[in-house]
Structures are given as structure tokens and as C-alpha cells.
Amino acid sequence: MSCLFALAVFSACDSGDPATTGGASTQAPTQPGSGDPIGAPPAAGIYFSPMGVKLEIGAPPAPALEALGEPLSELPCPSCAMLAKDVDYRYDGFVLTVTYPETGDDYITGIRLSGDKYAIPGGVTIGSTLEEVLAAYGTDYQENNGFYTYTQGLSTLEFSIKDGKVVQILYGYDWDNA
């Protein structure tokens, strides 16, 4: 998996934000209303726990990377959301994206499940039905072309639904509201 995952999930390059130049922000994003750099506390409720390791968007990556052990592969690329480097760490069943800003703290910015090896909180997995997603997560979502997105704080949980079944699960950083 490439850093295209980050582009698809976060769509920061398509934001049309006048503060971006050539796909890179001229400053690090900040917490809403605070001016403090992101490295935000994670949003409660939107998380993924493979191998007993709790992964949350916005959390520092070092403890998680240490607990998860050696990834199958690493793919670094420039971040299109800000002046930073993103690294996709591929593990069996999921990809973890970490952003390493030029200034400020490192943090987890994406998780993509790549198969049905893991169920996420609520018991949903790739192959679950839309009804199972709605039963687990409710109806407070945004739907766009088969993508059902739940947002909590600066975290998003997105389900791609095709023919009534989950075909992709993505956790992401909500760059639009950062």
C-alpha cells in the first residue's frame, strides 16, 4: 500500500485551502481555537485494537509501534496535508499511517484495514452488512457515494459499502476541521 492511502483518506490535497502551496501547508495544523500544534489527545470511542494494542488517531505513535513490533513493510512519502513526512507501516491485516511533522509531535493519522482478520469495536469487519454497521455505530454519519463516515473530535471512521457490504474500513484524521 502506498501513501496514496493518505491522499484518499484525508483528501487534504484537494481542500482548495489557500494556506496550502504545492500540496503542502505553509504551517503545521493546529487544534481548533487553540493555536496549539496537533498531536492532539485521541478521540475517545474511535479506535482500533489489533493484537491488543489500542491505536487512536492523534495519539503518539512510538508506544504503538513498539508494541506492534516489526512491520511487514514501511513506505515513507511527503505529506500533502502539511510540511511533514508520512510513513505507512504495513502489518498483517492493516496499515498504520504516522505523520512526522517538521516541527511538533509525531502522531497517528490513519489506519486502513486490509482484510477481515480483525473486527473493530462494535464487531464490524470487512464483509459486515450496512445494517451491522448502523447497529454498531448508529445513524449519526455522513454518506457520500457509498462511504459512511462517522466523526468524533478530529477522528473519522469510514466504511466503504458496496452491494450492502463493507469492503473497506478507514480511520483518519479530520483535516477539514483541524
What order do the helices and strands come in, and which of them pair?
Layout: H1 4-10, E1 20-21, E2 24-25, E3 47-48, E4 55-56, H2 62-68, E5 73-78, E6 84-91, E7 94-101, E8 107-113, H3 130-137, E9 142-144, E10 147-152, E11 155-162, E12 165-173
Antiparallel strand pairs: 1-2, 3-4, 5-6, 6-7, 7-8, 8-12, 9-10, 10-11, 11-12
Characterize the structure shown.
With 178 residues, the chain is mostly beta strands. It has one domain. Helices cover 12% and strands 35% of the residues. It contains three helices and twelve strands. The chain has helices spanning 4-10, 62-68, 130-137, and strands at residues 20-21, 24-25, 47-48, 55-56, 73-78, 84-91, 94-101, 107-113, 142-144, 147-152, 155-162, 165-173. The strands form three sheets. The protein has an eight-stranded antiparallel beta sheet with strand order 5-6-7-8-12-11-10-9, sandwiched between helices. Strands 1-2 form a two-stranded antiparallel sheet. Strand 11 and strand 12 (165-173) form a beta hairpin. Residues 4-44 have low confidence and may be disordered.
Could you provide a short overview of the structure?
With 178 residues, the protein is mainly beta. It has helices at residues 4-10, 62-68, 130-137, and strands at 20-21, 24-25, 47-48, 55-56, 73-78, 84-91, 94-101, 107-113, 142-144, 147-152, 155-162, 165-173.
